[in-house]
């Protein structure tokens, strides 16, 4: 005997199926963007430290598994379970994909940002606080997932215990994102320089940090607000994209070092080459040796201001030839120096 529930009115049905469909579509789109960023990272930065590579590929593997599980749920809801309203509100693998995997990805990404803040500030206070709050958020995410799995229906997730766990999970995530965005912006501005290329890179990182940090914090807060609406599953839309936003934000920061020649924000350098000759007198044995040396001076200049030219001069002596007046013959040597 079929256990399918009778279909409600069209308006009520769209309230149940609409957020789920939107969440799946946005989730798949963000996974495509994440895959493209992974390919760019693989091609552009093969010499990154092993720890960074392990973090990148670990995050992507977790995201890949999450996408496969959510695709299975989508097919179960709108494929072989089409017409059965219970398949829409059934938990399926949501308990694992959203709070648990989301908590793991959030902890990894926020720990990555905490390490960057430590490198900039050389202080352990704020990074330790970020990691501690992120770890608490991770534990709350695990609690949310297990409680959700026990209840089994997305419409019944408004018990006090599960709401408290979800509140700690989302609020902790949002707090970490806000602290990370503020600290990174402060330290990037503090390390800004007058050189155009460095200045443009720092501005790009600041914009990226503020946008991604604000977006992830906003999604976490929105997810908590929608979760508090009784009897509705609006939170499935924001929950489905939360982890993908974190992963894409981290990947975007890593590949922001990638620069397209001739693209927006690209700053070319102008090279000047000058040759100077000078005579060097020194004694060798009983006679005086006169050597004439050719020095090639390379000036690499960021096109920003004329007064910065002297600060950016780098000279290299790439070949020094000496002609000896004594019987010692020709003498060749190499020297390097900078001004």
UniProtKB/TrEMBL annotation:
Record carries keyword Transmembrane = yes
* The name this protein goes by in its record: DUF6534 domain-containing protein
Query: Which InterPro entries would you find in this protein's record?
Result: DUF6534 (IPR045339)
Every DUF6534 domain range: 174-257
The UniProt transmembrane annotation reads 20-42, 54-72, 92-113, 125-147, 167-189, 201-227
Keywords, sorted A to Z = Membrane, Transmembrane, Transmembrane helix
Identify one Pfam family in the record.
DUF6534
Name the domain of life.
Eukaryota
Source organism per UniProt? Mycena pura
């Amino acid at each position: 005997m079929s256990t399918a529930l009778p279909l409600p009115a069209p308006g009520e049905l769209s309230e149940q199926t609409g957020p789920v469909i939107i969440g799946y579509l946005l989730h798949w789109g963000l996974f495509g963007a994440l895959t493209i960023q992974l390919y760019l990272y693989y091609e552009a930065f093969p010499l990154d430290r092993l720890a960074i590579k392990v973090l990148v590929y670990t995050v992507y593997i977790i995201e890949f598994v999450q996408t496969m599980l959510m695709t299975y749920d989508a097919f179960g809801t709108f494929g072989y379970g089409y017409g059965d309203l219970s398949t829409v509100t059934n938990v399926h693998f949501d308990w694992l994909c959203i709070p648990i995997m989301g908590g793991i990805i959030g902890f990894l990404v926020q720990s990555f940002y905490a390490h960057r803040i430590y490198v900039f500030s050389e202080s352990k206070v704020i990074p330790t606080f970020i990691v501690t709050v992120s770890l608490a958020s991770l534990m709350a995410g695990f609690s949310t997932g297990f409680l959700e799995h026990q209840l089994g229906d997305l419409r019944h997730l408004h018990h006090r215990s599960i709401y408290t766990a979800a509140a700690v999970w989302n609020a902790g995530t949002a707090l970490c994102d806000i602290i990370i965005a503020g600290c990174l912006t402060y330290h990037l501005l503090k390390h800004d320089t007058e050189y155009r290329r460095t200045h443009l890179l720092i501005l790009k990182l600041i914009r990226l940090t503020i946008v991604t940090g604000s977006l992830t914090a906003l999604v976490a807060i929105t997810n908590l607000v929608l979760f508090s609406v009784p009897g509705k599953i609006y939170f499935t839309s924001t929950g489905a994209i939360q982890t993908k936003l974190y992963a894409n934000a981290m990947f975007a920061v890593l590949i922001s070092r990638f620069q397209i020649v001739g693209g927006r924000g690209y700053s070319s350098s102008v090279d000047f080459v000058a040759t100077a000759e000078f005579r060097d007198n020194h004694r060798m044995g009983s006679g005086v040796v006169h050597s004439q040396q050719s020095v090639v001076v390379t000036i690499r200049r960021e096109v920003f201001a004329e007064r910065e030219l002297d600060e950016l001069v780098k000279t290299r002596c790439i070949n020094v030839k000496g002609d000896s007046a004594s019987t010692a013959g020709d003498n060749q040597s190499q020297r390097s120096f900078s001004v």
